[in-house]
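Quick one, tokens below. Sequence please?
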């Protein structure tokens, strides 16, 4: 184990490297091309750490470490006073949740920190000069934290680590850890230690250009040597991080809440909720968005001869009066497309309606029209939105009436449905009736949620990757 350096030791070398302790313990000076390999305990003793909110991978705005890197460390590297030779990067997640998703979180947290550094270096560090490690479930650091805290349950967790981790049996370890003390240990770990495992960590190996360089980093003797778990600062963010670590929405999903309270009168006399879903796509430029809607009430009561079955497919284009173009609405300022909009739509529908044994209709139709609405973001981030909308247009359908049992021969009872046709069967043709409606076609109070996002590069507006949330 590497001893925790003191200010007096700050300019002394050990194994060809020096830690800039205690102000910047994550900056390690090397006097040769040799880059030491730090054990997990050594790494945890000196690494700079950013702690993430649960289930998130974007860097927390206002993090003191990000401010320090941006204002002090990276400008010094760009000035040439120190030369960055190598990076050790780690990303991790806490054990709760799915292992595959935790691996995703650890990887993307690490890359978020790497992107932050690379974007601010005049000469980016080559991939060959990096050691990158992603921990899906960081049990080793959990055990280390418990050991440092003098936790009475440390030996229990350490024993599990020694038993399961050498063979990567994460699922078995998690299962047994959940059962210790009837689950009470797991709950305590979740509250006490797991928030400290959702991290991205960094150690920078540097070469000094002059003997005086190191003195700028050594702190006075009265500064304690300790690791501070990074949390968002209470003071306002001095950096414009939300633009540099930006993302823009790609897709939202929404549902019309009014449709779940539909009541069918006229002899049907029942509540008939209409399940519905809409997906809206948001481009990076312009005023237009594009959406698709599916409505699918599928209610039936054979014995009462009541059917309310519809499949409606709708496509629409929206024009928001407030431009959603990325040039006018930079990422980080809430949802790009909001406020008033107008729309054009077209739809097709198949239906089967029946009110009683003598009144049923089956057919299909199509329609088109225009609409208007207003999108109101909910909350500071605006991923949830409330929408009010109204559509009007025409709908034209072809249909046939039908009834229960044979109309021509009432004495023939086979308990089937027949078209209402009394002439010769050879003369029958489907869809002999037509109905057209002109007027309001849809009213909505809709809840939507931004489901898919794109990361934005520092230069330009191309996408790096899409992420589900």
């Amino acid at each position: 184990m590497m001893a925790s350096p003191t200010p007096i030791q700050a300019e002394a070398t050990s194994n060809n490297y020096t830690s800039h302790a205690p102000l910047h313990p994550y900056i390690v000076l090397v006097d040769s091309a040799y880059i030491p390999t730090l054990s997990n305990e050594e790494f945890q003793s000196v690494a700079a750490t950013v702690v993430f909110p649960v289930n998130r991978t974007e860097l927390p705005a206002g993090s003191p470490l990000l401010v320090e890197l941006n204002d002090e460390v990276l400008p010094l590297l760009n000035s040439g006073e120190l030369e960055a030779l190598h990076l050790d990067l780690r990303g991790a997640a806490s054990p709760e949740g799915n292992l595959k998703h935790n691996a995703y979180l650890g990887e993307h947290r690490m890359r978020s920190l790497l992107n932050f550094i690379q974007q601010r270096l005049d000469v980016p560090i080559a991939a060959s000069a990096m050691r990158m490690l992603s921990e899906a479930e960081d049990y080793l650091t959990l055990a280390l934290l418990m050991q440092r805290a003098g936790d009475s349950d440390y030996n229990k967790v350490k024993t599990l680590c020694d038993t399961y981790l050498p063979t990567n049996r994460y699922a078995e370890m998690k299962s047994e850890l959940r059962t210790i003390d009837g689950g009470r240990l797991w709950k305590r770990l979740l509250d006490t230690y797991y928030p400290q495992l959702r991290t991205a960590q960094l150690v920078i190996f540097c070469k000094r250009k002059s003997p005086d360089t190191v003195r700028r980093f050594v702190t006075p003797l009265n500064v304690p040597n300790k690791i501070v778990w990074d949390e968002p600062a209470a003071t306002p963010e001095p950096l414009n991080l939300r633009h540099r670590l930006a993302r823009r929405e790609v897709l939202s999903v929404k549902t019309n809440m009014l449709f779940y309270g539909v009541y069918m009168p006229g002899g049907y006399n029942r509540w008939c909720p209409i399940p519905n879903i809409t997906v809206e796509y948001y481009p990076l430029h312009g005023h237009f968005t594009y959406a698709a809607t599916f409505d699918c009430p599928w209610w039936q009561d054979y014995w009462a001869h009541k059917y309310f079955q519809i499949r409606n497919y709708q496509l629409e284009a929206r024009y928001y009066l407030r431009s959603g173009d990325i040039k006018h609405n930079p990422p980080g300022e809430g949802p790009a497309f909001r406020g008033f909009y107008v729309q054009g739509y077209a739809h097709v529908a198949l239906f089967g309606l029946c009110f009683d044994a003598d009144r049923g209709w089956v057919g299909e139709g199509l329609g088109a029209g225009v609409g208007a609405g207003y999108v109101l973001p909910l909350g500071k981030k605006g991923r949830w939105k409330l929408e009010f909308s109204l559509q009007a247009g025409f709908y034209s359908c072809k249909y046939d009436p039908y009834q229960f049992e044979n109309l021509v021969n009432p004495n023939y009872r086979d308990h089937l449905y027949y078209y209402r046709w009394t002439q010769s069967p050879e003369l029958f043709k489907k869809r002999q009736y037509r109905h057209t409606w002109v007027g309001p076609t849809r009213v909505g109070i809709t809840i939507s949620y931004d489901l898919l996002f794109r990361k934005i590069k520092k230069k330009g507006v191309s996408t790096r990757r899409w992420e589900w949330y």
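Residues 1-22, 213-245, 458-469 have pLDDT under 50 and may be disordered. The chain has two domains: 7-242, 246-468.
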